[in-house]
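Quick one: examine this chain and its backbone structure tokens and tell me how the chain folds. Here goes:
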Amino acid sequence: MPKKKKKIKKKKAIKKRKKTSIKKVEQNIEKELVFKTKKDWITKATVNKSQYEKKYKTSLSDNDGFWKKEGRRINWIKPYTKIKDVKYSKSEVNIKWFYDGTLNASANCIDRHLKKTKIKQQSYGLVTIQKFKKKSLIRNFTKKYQKQPTD
């Protein structure tokens, strides 16, 4: 079979796949999808169903108060004073959360959990994230100055 015919067949097959996958997505959007949560996830969750429903009702009845309280759950370098600035119009959609505060995402996602978390690294055995972070800093420093690290 000539190469041109093969390329044309491939393109048609790709277009057909795209159309069917788009149709499937559209069909699923119209359906209500329910994902069952694993039991062990439920037992490990920080919020149970009744607590979630209470938080949700509060978020509707006292939106600013709810987000003010939720905003205090993370560590801020410079605390926020403004919770949100939301504008919806035909010409402009503008959403800002805690926009006058400053935070360090790494500190909130990793550093504040260092004291209670351990990770398993094959080359080091069981080490704390603090030790791993220290070794990584040493490696990065030595790479910058093109020297080999000593472990």
Summary: The two ends are 60 Å apart (CA to CA).
